[in-house]
Every structure is written in C-alpha cells, then in structure tokens.
Design a protein that fits this description.
two-stranded antiparallel sheet, 4 strands, binds zinc ion, zinc-finger
Length: 248
C-alpha cells in the first residue's frame, strides 16, 4: 500500500498533541500516520490502538468480535433479528474485506449492544476501548441523522482519534491509583479538540451545541468539559476547557 505523503502540517502525537517523534510502523506501512511524541505515549494507548493498527488501520476497522462477545450478543439483544443478520454477515469469510463500511457498521452495532448490556462485574471484562467506540459510533450516527454532521463523509482518521479517546476514557475510569503513570486528564481534552478540528469540514454551522454536548457526554466519566465551538474561515475551532476533574 502507498506510504502517506508528507503532510503539510507537522505530525503530532495522537495522545498529547505535541510534535511527534515516532510513528507507529505497522500503521505507516498501511498508509496511515499515527504519530507519537514518545514511547511512553505509544505504550499508554497501545492497549486500544492495537485493535485498529496495521492491517486494521486503513480503512480503520475494529477487530472481529471475539467468542465471548458473540455469546453475549446472542443472549442479550433487544432486536435479535437485526443482530442475527449482522452476526451472519460478519461470519462470511470475505465480508470485512469486500464491504469494509458495511462490516464496520455491523461490528459497531453488535458491540454497542454487547456493551450496553454489560452489567455485572464478571461481564465487564468483555468491555474494552472498541466497545466504547461502538457506543460512541451510535452517538455519531444520531448526529448524522440530525444533520449536525455529514455522517456519510466521516474521515477515517476520525476513528483513530476516537479509538485513542476511548482508550484514554477507559484508563481514566480506573481509580487514580490504578491508572498508568503516563496518563493525564489533559490528554482527553486535547483529543477532543483535535476531533473537533477533524470534524470541522463536515460539520453543519449553527449546530455546534449538539456536537459539543455529545463529546462532553462521551468523556464525562473522566472529565467535565466546558467550552464552545466557534467557526473560523478555515473551519471550526474548539475552545474547550476543563473546569472540574470528575471521574470515579
Ligand atoms: Zn504525546
Ligand atoms: Zn498502529
């Protein structure tokens, strides 16, 4: 696959936004630049990034459902028919390769249902950043339906940013003593800002509040965001500030 051309903007760390010194090699080989300022930040989100790295990076495609997820999906679904259709499609050998967008929709649908129905502690082990991403995808679909963003044009880098955000939120939900040392709540805010920049070209002016509220909801278990989305000539600008550290 073609290697990415040099971007006009210097590459930034997908975690903290500082200048990137390292690139994830498997992503680079797949034609995607996933920059990191340091090994520390690469390690910090590897747990989630590995799901969409290398062969899964371009187009960004979350990993197949694992056996336990399929089991939960089969017993927990509120609309068995629709989910069964998705599971059948995903089970087809070449479906992911031939219809990546449809496969991603199916994956997101099944995972979101699985994640929503996880209630007891032993079930929580099934949840992971890709499950969080699946639920967020439902939020983005809703924004698309509402006309807030043009959902058909979601840039595929968006999923990489959201996967990092989901990983940070996953880590941030842990008690402070259990979080990795390199974790900082500011990273969550930073990824939100870069997500807003990415959404600027496909965002409907005047609908900023809904988009900001959606992002705020997505990260509220870790951080309370306050801010607003403005517009410049070259796109959307996010003034996002942390005013209270939340979390459990
Ligand atoms: Zn960094
Ligand atoms: Zn990678």
């Amino acid at each position: 696959m073609a290697r990415p051309r040099t971007a006009t903007k210097p590459h930034v760390c997908i975690v903290c936004g500082k200048q990137a010194k390292e690139r994830c090699p498997p992503c680079w080989d797949a034609g995607v630049v996933t920059g990191f300022c340091s090994r520390d930040h690469q390690k910090l989100v590897w747990f989630g990034h590995r799901d969409v790295c290398g062969a899964n990076a371009n187009p960004c495609m979350p990993p197949p459902l694992h056996a336990q997820e399929i089991k939960w999906a089969e017993v927990s679904t509120p609309s068995p028919k629709q989910l069964k259709w998705s599971l059948d499609m995903l089970a087809r050998p070449d479906f992911r390769k031939h219809s990546p967008d449809a496969a991603r929709d199916c994956l997101f649908r099944v995972r979101a249902v699985v994640d929503e129905t996880l209630i007891s502690p032993e079930q929580v082990s099934v949840s992971h950043p890709s499950c969080i991403l699946a639920r967020w995808n439902a939020i983005f679909s809703q924004l698309g339906e509402d006309g807030d963003i043009q959902e058909d044009d979601l840039p595929h880098e968006l999923y990489h940013h959201l996967q990092v955000l989901a990983t940070l939120v996953y880590l941030g939900r842990k008690p402070v003593s259990h979080r990795p040392k390199a974790f900082k709540t500011e990273f969550v805010v930073d990824v939100v800002k870069r997500t807003l920049e990415l959404l600027a070209p496909i965002h409907t002016p005047g609908e900023s509040t809904k988009l900001f509220k959606a992002l705020r909801t997505m990260v509220k278990s870790v951080v309370n965001l306050q801010g607003e989305i403005g517009r410049r000539e070259d796109g959307m600008t996010g003034r996002v500030e942390v005013y209270q550290i939340g979390g459990r």
